[in-house]
Amino acid sequence: MKPETLPSRTVSPTRSFMTLVLIELWERFGYYGMQALIVYYMVQRLGFNDERANLVWSAAAALIYVAPAIGGWIGDKVLGTKRTAVLGAMILTVGYALMAVPTENTWFLFCALGVVVVGNGLFKPNNANLVRKNYEGDDSKIDSAFTIYYMSVNVGSTFSMLATPWIKDYVNATYGGELGWHVAFAVCSVGLVLGLFNVALMRHTIHHLGSPPDRAPLDYGKLAMVLGGGVIVAGASAVILEYQALARAFVYIAGIVVLGIFVHLIRKSAASERSGLIAALVLTLQTVFFFIFYQQMSTSLSLFALRNVDLDFSLFGMHLFDWSPAQFQALNAIWIMVLSPVLAWIYTRAGKSGKDLSIAAKFALGFSVVAVGFFIYGVAGQFAVGGKTSSWIMIWGYGFYSLGELLVSGLGLAMIARYVPERMSGFMMGAYYVGTGISQYLGGVVANYASVPQNLVDPVQTLPIYTSLFNKLGMGAVACTLLALAVLPLLRKLTAVHQSHS
């Protein structure tokens, strides 16, 4: 293969950005289509109890988010940012295809999830890093671009989280049996095929983007090593998912290692880089707290929708349609699509007038809004009839939660892009995802405070179990808001020092 040259920019940043957004959209289509069903699949199809299903999925989510720490380094130093992103998308296609195989064998499921771990680890940090490179040096554009990029995640996830539960129900009802689960997982794989086809068609728009290895011929020896390492990681992930003690130990060790690396890099960095790295560390720790709340969407909130939410959606007393319990997760993505353009416009306008809030202030505001969302879920019992609460509780709860998510998680990548030196950006993108992965697992641990015994089916009895947890989560989000406000002065000082050296 001939070396890929990275010519001077001849393509507008907007066109390059659209190519990156579209592959992200299809990748998230696959991931969230799978996420919408995975806990239900384990509980309803494989017979797992709530506690095991929550922890298995949370451990898988943790591994999926930890893997980019290695994938970012591979993109920076080994294969190239662009090549690694495309390779990751190919591996994800295989992972979802494996989940489409109609078997009840739990080891097969865990191995398929292991392949997804590898694919996500290679794709996620590198595609985000390409967005960073596309808008290098323009902070207000970076905030706006990553907000729209985050919206692309939710365009893909909206369609898949609405589609896969419907496909599963339709196939099962039409043909009998349980084949619908696997057909739905197959649709996730097809989404990645479409995404890769789109990249092939539009590859000229990102020709100028990449890291130094992208400029050299592909080293097939290094590619073989990466693929061999991926096989090992996939197998190890399957073992970790089977044995929860291993999962717990792995997640905690990963947290300690990444924190240690962060501290080492801060100590060894140049004085001009140190303040930005410290600010990134503080904001990353805040993000860890946020994703504990985020993980409830696919665990406690998902099971709450199954057992304690009226699936009838009515407006002014008129029945419109019935939800599938899994489809409530799409509310998160729908709200984010509605709110993202508004926030992106506000950020750009405020940046031009010099009145934009700092990322740290946006984090504090985000936690306060998340608190409102969980308090709405917490009052669900006040609107319940026979243990079933209104669909509107889910709609408005997800609305406030989603606004908080945009203010915290939606700017997490922008925070790395703004504060971290370019030579560390791939690794730091990965480190950010490691923090996310740790909190995904912790979120599963928290969700288990609302685990319902398998023989308990009365909604009147299960409702207070969930609302008690949601009220506690609301109080936790209030505490996070106060903590974020407390560190604001420090972050303002660090940001000022960082900007003076930029």
Tell me what the structure shows.
The chain has 502 residues and is mainly alpha-helical. It has one domain (13-501): Growth Hormone, Chain: A. Helices cover 77% and strands 2% of the residues. It contains 18 helices and 2 strands. It has a two-stranded antiparallel ribbon. Helix 4 (81-99) runs antiparallel to helix 5, helix 5 crosses helix 16 and helix 9 (244-268) packs antiparallel against helix 10. The longest helix has 37 residues, at 139-175. The chain starts with 12 loop residues before the first helix and ends with a helix. The model is unreliable at 1-9 (pLDDT under 50). The chain crosses the membrane at residues 21-43, 55-75, 84-101, 107-123, 144-167, 179-202, 223-243, 249-266, 278-306, 326-347, 359-380, 400-420, 432-450, 470-491. This is Oligopeptide:H+ symporter. Keywords: Cell membrane, Membrane, Peptide transport, Protein transport, Transmembrane, Transmembrane helix, Transport. It is a multi-pass membrane protein. InterPro entries: Dipep/tripep_permease, MFS_trans_sf, MFS_Transporters, POT_fam.
Salient structural properties:
502 residues, Growth Hormone, Chain: A, two-stranded antiparallel sheet, 18 helices, 77% helix, 2% strand, globular
Q: Outline of this structure?
A:
The protein is mostly helical and 502 residues long. The chain has helices at residues 13-45, 50-66, 68-78, 81-99, 106-134, 139-175, 179-201, 220-242, 244-268, 271-294, 300-308, 330-353, 359-378, 391-408, 412-419, 425-447, 459-486, 488-501, and strands at residues 312-315, 318-322.
